[in-house]
């Protein structure tokens, strides 16, 4: 069987498929991942701010029921397995994109799955800012919005970059899973060729490329975070 | 003038109620350097944080130049806080901003012109002797240097009052002296009223004109530094003036012996 898997014929055929389909698949994976991450940050970051600033003794206290509700929604979304979430959000996906299959459509469930995660990551970054630093700003007459915009966010930039890197690599993994519902990219290729057509070598190549992409994102993210940190 | 009148502060914790301050009254005259000294946990930080309402007293009033600080609405309180600067034991600089931008920070909060702010910040860094560190980040500075940056920052908004909460407690004796000298200079040259919180008698001796001794949330003694230190009347004052419990080795005068007897 192994002989068969790596026979010259199989390898040649695989090489043809790889050359024909992989460039687009890599591009799709990167595109989905970056776009979904950007959207998740757009929603998750402000929520992360609210989770910290909105506490009883935070700089912008929210009504207790609102904060509790926010926490509950985030926990709820985070506890649904991604595979099921993808199907659950079909109506929403159809509403926004017009269809439930395809590369763009797969961004909707990705964002729904990732923004609560991003909100938690952002929350943990903001909690690293010392209460003393916030009190210093208050003692200088800073308003709540100034504290958020000029202290909480800028002081946690390195940590936010690290956490954005975690988010990107996680979303990359999810995006591969969305290949099941027709989301494009390396995930789709791995599933189509490896699972449905037993072309093991192509699946292997797709997985190796996913690993390489994770490595690249992680390395770049770690470097950026280190460079941004002035401590 | 800062008038602290009958301030009490209770904290309600799970372990019960903590009476951090009880019926504290003090008056700090304009241009004074006023020391508030006491052991750890005496309520010094709570008291100084009540002055700018970072902590709201449970009862009592604080008046600054006649204005009841506790009665001010949020916006005006923020406005007032710009004229009451604060420096801390831990410096609390923004670690992701360079020194110049740290000094610009309060001006930025006040919505001041960027270029003028930078010029002013540069000037102040020169005043505290750190003109060459404008582009350095706090993490690259020593503790004493960081406190100088914090002082420059505190001066940026031309405050009337400077509150120092254990500002030298994290520094070695030589650095402490240089920071105290800087504070004294600021007081004399700019006429800024200074409140110095400390647990060290030496700090009060070096810079303060008046002193209040805080013990268990109460003012047990206050007056001119020379009077309080030469004739400590309360037990708490004696503990601070004669930390070894032996007045002879510190105080040669007859009163010391008499007091102890
Ligand atoms: N936020 C708080 N909650 C509960 N207790 C507090 C709080 N802040 C201070 N305390 C208590 O009040 C007392 C005085 O504290 P503090 O003013 O910090 O003293 P000092 O600065 O003189 O060391 C201490 O017993 C302290 O535990
Ligand atoms: Mg204290």
Question: Secondary-structure element sequence of chain B?
Answer: EEEHEEHEHHHEHEHEEHHHH
CATH T-level fold name of chain A: MetI-like fold
Tally of domains of chain A: 1
Instruction: Give the strand tally of chain A.
Output: 0
What string gives the helices and strands of chain A in order?
HHHHHHHHHHH
Please describe the biggest sheet of chain B, giving its number of strands, its sense, and whether it closes into a barrel: 6 strands, mixed
**Number of H- or I-type helical stretches of chain B:** 11
CATH superfamily of chain A: MetI-like
Overall geometric form of chain B: globular
- Compute the average pLDDT of chain B: 92
Which terms summarize this structure?
heterodimer, A: 231 residues, mainly alpha, MetI-like fold, elongated, B: 261 residues, 6-stranded mixed sheet, 11 helices, globular, disordered C terminus
Describe it.
- The complex is a heterodimer of chains A (231) and B (261).
- Chain A has 231 residues and is mainly alpha-helical.
- Chain A has one domain (2-228): MetI-like (MetI-like fold, Orthogonal Bundle).
- Chain A contains eleven helices and no strands.
- Chain A has helices at 2-5, 8-53, 64-79, 82-88, 90-97, 107-127, 131-139, 144-155, 157-177, 186-196, 200-228.
- Chain A starts with a helix and ends with a helix.
- The mean pLDDT of chain A is 92.
- Chain B is α/β, with parallel strands linked by helices and 261 residues long.
- Chain B is 39% helix and 26% strand.
- Chain B has helices at 44-51, 74-81, 99-109, 114-127, 143-155, 173-190, 201-207, 225-230, 235-241, 247-250, 254-260, and strands at residues 2-13, 16-28, 33-37, 59-64, 67-68, 84-88, 161-165, 193-198, 210-215, 218-224.
- In chain B, the strands form two sheets. Chain B has a six-stranded mixed β-sheet, with helices on both faces. A four-stranded antiparallel β-sheet of chain B has the order 2-1-4-5, with helices on one face.
- In chain B, strand 4 (59-64) and strand 5 form a beta hairpin.
- The termini of chain B are far apart.
- Mean pLDDT of chain B is 92; it is low at 248-261.
- Chain A binds chain B through residues 130, 132-133, 135-143, 146, 150-151, 154-155, 157-158, 228-231, and chain B through 52, 54, 77-82, 84-86, 88, 90, 92, 94-98, 105-106, 108-110, 137-139, 157.
């Amino acid at each position: 069987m192994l002989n068969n898997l790596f026979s010259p014929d199989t390898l040649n055929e695989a090489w043809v498929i790889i050359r024909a389909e992989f460039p687009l698949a890599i591009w799709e994976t990167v595109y989905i991942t970056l776009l979904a991450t950007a959207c998740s940050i757009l929603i998750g970051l402000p929520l992360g701010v609210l989770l910290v600033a909105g506490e009883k003794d935070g700089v912008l206290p929210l009504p207790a029921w609102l904060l509790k509700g926010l926490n509950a929604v985030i926990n709820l979304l985070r506890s649904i397995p991604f595979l099921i979430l993808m199907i659950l959000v079909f109506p929403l996906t159809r509403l926004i994109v017009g269809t439930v299959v395809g590369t763009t459509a797969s961004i909707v469930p990705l964002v729904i799955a990732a923004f609560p995660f991003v909100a938690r990551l952002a929350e943990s970054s903001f909690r690293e800012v010392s209460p003393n630093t916030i009190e210093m700003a208050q003692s200088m007459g800073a308003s709540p919005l100034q504290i958020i915009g000029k202290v909480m966010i800028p002081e946690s930039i390195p940590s936010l970059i690290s956490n954005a890197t975690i988010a990107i690599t996680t979303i990359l993994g999810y995006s591969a899973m969305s290949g099941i519902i027709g989301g494009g990219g390396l995930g789709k290729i791995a599933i189509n060729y490896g699972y449905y057509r037993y072309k093991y070598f192509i699946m292997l190549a797709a997985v190796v490329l996913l690993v390489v992409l994770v490595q690249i994102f992680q390395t770049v993210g770690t470097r950026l975070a280190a460079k941004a940190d002035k401590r | 003038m800062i008038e602290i009148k009958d301030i009490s502060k209770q904290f309600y914790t799970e372990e019960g109620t903590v009476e951090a301050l009880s019926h504290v009254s003090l008056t700090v005259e304009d241009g004074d350097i006023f020391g508030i000294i006491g052991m750890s946990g005496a309520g010094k930080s709570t008291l100084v944080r009540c002055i700018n309402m970072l902590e709201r007293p449970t009862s009592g009033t604080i008046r600054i130049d006649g204005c009841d600080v506790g009665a001010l609405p949020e916006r005006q309180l923020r406005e007032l806080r710009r004229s009451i600067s604060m420096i801390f034991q831990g410096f609390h600089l923004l670690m992701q901003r360079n020194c110049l931008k740290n000094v610009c920070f309060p001006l930025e909060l006040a919505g001041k012109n960027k270029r003028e702010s930078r010029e002013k910040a540069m000037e102040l860094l020169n005043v505290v002797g750190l003109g060459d560190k404008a582009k350095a980040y706090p993490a690259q500075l020593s503790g004493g240097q960081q406190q100088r940056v914090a002082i420059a920052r505190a001066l940026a908004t031309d405050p009337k009052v400077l509150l120092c909460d254990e500002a030298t407690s994290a520094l070695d004796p030589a650095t402490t002296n240089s920071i105290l000298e800087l504070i004294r200079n600021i007081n004399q040259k700019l006429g800024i009223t200074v409140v110095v919180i400390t647990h060290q008698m030496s700090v009060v001796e070096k810079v303060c004109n008046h002193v209040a001794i805080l013990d268990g949330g109460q003012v047990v003694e206050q007056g001119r530094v020379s009077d309080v230190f030469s004739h400590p009347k309360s037990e708490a004052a004696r503990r601070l003036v004669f930390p070894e419990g032996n007045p002879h080795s510190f105080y040669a005068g007859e009163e010391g012996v008499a007091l102890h007897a």
